[in-house]
Amino acid sequence: MDFTDAYRRWNACNPVSLFTAPIFKDIGQKLEDVARNIQQEARSATHLYIWTDCDREGEAIGGEVAEVCRKTNPRLIVRRAHFSSVLPQEIHHAMQNTRELDMRLVNAVEARSELDLRIGAALSRFQTLRLQSQFDAVKDKIISYGPC
After folding, report:
1. pLDDT tens-digit profile of 45-58?
2. Long-range contacts of 69-72 (CB under 8 A, 24+ apart)
3. Beta carbons of 46 and 70 less than 8 angstroms apart
């Protein structure tokens, strides 16, 4: 997730405009080969089973994988395995009791990521630009807000 080119440069816009600036989701160059591979596999598949960690991030990763796969196979049936250990009985139980992806969790992670991007970028730019003009000690430094 990132801002469009018009908003990426620090002096291109008022930091306040980052709260409403257009953003996009991108796979990124590092994962393009992986995305192509799973899309190729998805073309002839009928089902996709998501076996990621059973937390919000795992659900969100499953949502991203499903989205990539459905670009080449919109009829793909996506199911989610829910397990807490890799013991044989847990794995068998998870496979026999799959469920749909919890899109509330997927959307929650996406919303949090968007808020992190918008708030972190806007406040980092604002405080950096403001403080650089007032203090020589930070003239050439970026003053980051939060995890960004």
Report:
1. 999 999 999 899 99
2. 69/38, 69/39, 69/41, 69/42, 69/45, 70/42, 71/39, 72/39, 72/40, 72/42, 72/43
3. no
Distance CA 121, CA 8 (A): 9
Alpha-carbon torsion angle 120, 123, 129, 131, nearest 10? -120
Q: What percent of the chain has pLDDT over 70?
A: 98
Mean pLDDT of 19-31: 91
- Which of 103, 88, 89, 99 is closest to 51 using CA atoms? 99
The pTM of the full predicted model, rounded to 2 decimals, is: 0.79
The position carrying tokens 């997730």 is: 1
